[in-house]
User: Fold Short-chain dehydrogenase from Cercophora scortea.
Amino acid sequence: MANSFGFHTTGDELVKHFGDRVAGRIFLITGPSEGGIGAETAISLARGNPSTLVLVGRSVERIQPTIDAIRDINAAIHVKLVLADLASMVNVCEAAQEILNDASIPHIDVQINNAAIMACPYSLTKDGFELQLAAGYLGHFVLTNHILPKLSKPGGRIINVSSMGNLASGIRWDDPNFTKVSEYNEWDAYGQAKTANVLFSIELNRRLAARGIRSFALHPGSFASGLAKFLTPELLQEAWDKIIGVSGVRPARKSLQQACATTLRAALDPALEAEEGVWLADCQLTTDPSTIAPWALDAHDATRLWALSEELVGEKFDA
Assistant:
C-alpha cells in the first residue's frame, strides 16, 4: 500500500488509512494558521479522533479558524493553543515550560515542526538571528529540546517540515545570520533554514535512537498559502533559476490536502520505522537530488549544526 502513496495522496486518505495511529493520540503542530499546511494537517488529524491537538503559533486570530474547524469535526478533541513567536528564544522557552507544566498534555506522541517564513526581506530578530533561520529552525531546535521529556518513547516521532528549498544553500558556517548584510539573499537564507531542518532530523535520529524516537524531514510540494506573501515576480524567477531549475522541471501545484499528505505519512506510518532514510517527498522516502541536496544529508554536518545551534542560542542539550 505504501508504494501507492504519491503526489495525489491526500491528508484525509492517510489519516483514514492509519486510523489506529491517530485515534486517542496527542499531536503538537507549530504554525497552524488558517490557509496553511499546518492548519490542514491539524484538520485532517481531527478526522481521525486524536485525544489532543496542541497548536503552537503567534496569533489567536490566525489560529482560531483552525480551532473552529477542529471543533466542527469533533468537539470532544482537546485543543490546546500555546501562543509563541518561534523567532524569539525567550518566548519559545516560555511556551515550552507552559507545555511541560500542563497536566492536560501528559505526553506528546508526535511533534510536527511546521512553522516557517519564506524569502522575506533581510531582518534580524531581537536575539540577533536572521529571521528565516530563527523562525524556521532555531525556534524548533529550542522548543523540541525543551519539551523532549514529554515525547512518548518508544514510538515517538519528530517531523521537520522542510522543502526542496534546501537546494538553494547549505549552512553558512562562518556567518549564518548574514551579518555582512550585502551578502543577504532571500533564497540563500531560506535554503539555509530548510537544510537545517533536515540536518536536525539526522542528528535527532542519532541522539534518540536508543529511546525509540524517530525523526523525518520532508518536502511538502508546491502549494498556495500565506507562506508566499513576500514573493515578487523577480523572486519567483530567482527561485526557478536557483532551486527549481536544478531539476529542470517546474513542479505542479498541490492542493493543501495533497501538500499535508507527506507530513502525515512521516508522522503516522509504522512501516517507516523499518526503513532507512530521513527525507520524504511525494509521500515516499527518497534521496532524489532534484529535491534534496548532498549537504542536507551529511551526518557530520548534522552533528556540527547541533553544536553551532547550541552556541547560537546559548544552551547545551543532552538529547
The first strand starts at residue 26 and ends at 30. The first helix runs from residue 11 to 17. The chain has a mean pLDDT of 93. Strands lie at 26-30, 52-57, 78-83, 110-113, 157-161, 214-219, 222-223, 253-254, 279-281, 284-285.
